Amino acid sequence: MNHTPLLLTKFLFISLFLLANCTSPGLDATETATLTVTATLTPEVTPTFTDLPPASTPELGLVENPLILALPPTVANRANPQAQIEAAKVLASLFTERTGQAVVTVIPDSETALVEALGRGNAHIVLLDPYAYELAYQRGWVRAAYAVIEEGEGKYGAQFIAARRGGFDSYFDESTEMNTADARTALAQFNDKKPCWSDEISPSGYVIPAGYLNENQILTRAPAFVQGHPTVVRSLYASGICDFGATYIDARKFPSLEDEFPDLNEQVIVVWRIPAIIPYNVLALSTNMPQEMREILANSIPAMLQTTAGKAAFKALYDIEEIQPVNDGYYDEFRTYLDWSGIDLSTLVE
Q1: How far is CA 61 from the centre of its chain?
Q2: Which class is domain 67-149+280-348?
Q3: Burial of 237: CB neighbours in 10 Å, binned 0-12, 13-18, 19+
Q4: For residue 55, what pLDDT is reported?
Q5: Which of 99, 106, 127, 190 is the most interior residue, by most CB within 10 Å?
Q6: 28: nearest Cα among 123, 124, 139
Q7: Which of 141, 198, 96, 132 lies closest to 338 in space, CA to CA?
Q8: pLDDT (tens digit, 9 = 90+) per residue, 227-245?
Q9: What's the rounded Cα separation, in Å, for the pair 16 and 9?
Q10: What is the mean pLDDT of residues 245-265?
């Protein structure tokens, strides 16, 4: 008796859903693409996961694996973020137009989420605050491309101040706006004195000044965090709260302070000024991209800022009007005193 062999042909349909924005924890994607792949198995084979060929990752910059432009984390907290989302779409289109690379956008929940996304390859074009940039740089995840310029400068300084009645000497010439001694000489008088700091994450009101004190081996008493640069000034004027403090330049001229204390500049003196080493925000590119791709993207940005649409989009999305090309060495002094502060960098990224 003849038996007709029964050949079973099995078809496996695999649907791969690729989120064009490469969503990850803490990131909201704005676009989704769907790709369907059909595979046929040979007869008499029972499929297992190990029988399937490994999935290959499409080349970065293709529609299937786009570059990701990250919006500022603050957008996620706005009641109506539509203007920023639209600006991001404009920038993504301009990047694609000028580089040929597919670009989509994401909205991170926080600066911490944005740094983590860089580590996972889920963000490529980013604007970072100085702490987030330094954290991502130390982990090898970004390279600086442009410093954001504010009032003509890419970095700013800070100042140590004290009440004149405290008997401190000033090593700063108000007429020339120049220090008259080195930091060690000027700051030695703060040994065993109590500082007033603005807050725990302020670069000019705590972190970098603390770095200068530590580098010069100045040991102080337990600080008071008074929540605000004007409050530091007011605390020194009132006396009895602390002996010295640090602020941005020049917090003594804060309007309400000048109105409240007409003799403020006489009573609260600048002891020494920290040079302009504290950066504003950093426009950076992910190291998950090949260097050539980073260079192409970086070179396209100035031309985009020259267009009406690009200028408006950068302003609406990142509050950027002017940038300066830089490399990571531009921030060396900042990272030196950030390190001297002894503060865990991850605690400064919110």
Answers
A1: 23
A2: alpha beta
A3: buried
A4: 59
A5: 106
A6: 123
A7: 132
A8: 999 999 999 999 889 999 9
A9: 22
A10: 93
The pLDDT value recorded for residue 65 is 96
- Residue 102 structure tokens: 């597919």
**Residue showing tokens 């442009």:** 146
Amino acid at 106: V
Cβ neighbours around 12 below 10 Å, total: 12
pLDDT beyond 80 at 87: yes
pLDDT tens per residue, range 14-49: 333 333 333 333 344 333 332 223 333 333 333 333
Indicate the domain borders of the chain.
67-149+280-348, 155-279
CATH 3.40.190.10: does it fit domain 155-279?
A: yes
pLDDT tens per residue, range 113-157: 999 999 999 999 999 999 999 999 999 999 999 999 999 999 999
Please state whether the predicted TM-score (pTM) of the whole model is above 0.85.
no
Average pLDDT score over the chain: 87
> Which pLDDT score is estimated for 54?
52
Q: Do 337 and 157 touch, CB atoms closer than 8 A?
A: no
Do 67-149+280-348 and 155-279 agree at the fold level?
yes
Which two tokens mark 295?
């260079």
